[in-house]
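Below is how a single chain appears once it has passed through the pipeline. First comes the sequence as given, then the structure the pipeline wrote out for it. We keep one example in the README because the format questions we get most often are answered faster by looking than by reading.
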Amino acid sequence: MLTGKNIVLGVTGGIAVYKAVDLVSRLRKLNANVYVVMTEHAKAFVTPLTFQSMSQNYVVHDMFEEPKTWDVEHIALAKRADLFVVAPATANVIGKVCHGIADDFLTTTIMATPAKVVFAPAMNTNMYINPITQGNIESLKTLGYDFIEPGSGRLACGDIGAGKMAEPEDIVNYIVDYFTPKALPMAGVKVLVSAGPTIEKIDPIRFITNRSTGKMGYAIAKKATELGAEVTLVSGPTQLEPPKGVTFVPIETALEMYEAIMRVVEAQDIIIKTAAVADYRPKEVATEKIKKADGELAMAFTRNPDILKSIGERKTHQVLVGFAAETMNVLAYAKRKIEQKHLDFIVANDVSQTGAGFGTDTNIVTIIDKEGNAVDYDQRSKEAVAEIVLEKAMHYHQNK
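Resulting structure:
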């Protein structure tokens, strides 16, 4: 089941080291290649010889011992790993990795590996729930490290609570699942996402725009790509890097966004319009910088095309999702928008609320469908909101 997979197992100093021996045995029975790296404190509980016998590979534990090969060993192991598991993972090693400290063979190898790193914490309950430890865990999660949550029960110190290292069977199940190809729920689905602001030029120096940062739309594009969709992201100017795997179409003005979307709209299955598009643009753009003068400056504006309404009027099979960022009468305006623009559902939010406005990493939304059903979602990350929106869009797509 794990034939040919190289698992590097980091073992740190805790009573749960004995479980790591069982873990190595189980992985070997699944034909994985297991390479064990021990900290000095881990050796106080189980000898390197035990792990060497179980893994049938030399165990590394001393940063400065004579190398067994001509490779730089921590770099060689770091590159060899298909998956890097730290079990047991003490509060100490979690904290060191979180803060970039590489002062032994294990932490140095973790810092050097391009492989996924997974921690199985094991420690006293009070250490585990300590805000410092929890902060370190959350910081590592945001950087892409994974955690296999500890169990609860009677600990070696006599305390009862969370902190028991996950059972070897559970860790093996995680590892097997990691290497098992997964069916992507949006494979083959074409998704168009618009994001960010548009800008409308006044003169060669100045323009008008809005406060959209594009974070919501980029989160949706990223998640849809991860789920297997073929994503086109049409975006106004932002400070964000386009997610990997999307077809990225940068634009500036509302007219440019309209043209970019209309060129590809027919081929799409799901269209999600998160962009904050300017409703108006200056009727005339000055060819030279407008100079300051006494009195008021008058400027005439003309309407931009309503991109969402245009899509709604010509859609055939597409699922069409709109966003409504409002500061008052949120539900009433959102429901009107569903009818006027022929949407399947709309994601509404009050941008005057803390945690729901432009530039935040969180959102507070209400999703309203064309039948008028409304579901409120409390504050959560924009990535979590993206998952909810895509799940609902796929439900509509599958039932078209």
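DSSP finds 13 helices and 19 strands in the chain.

See the next section for the split statistics.
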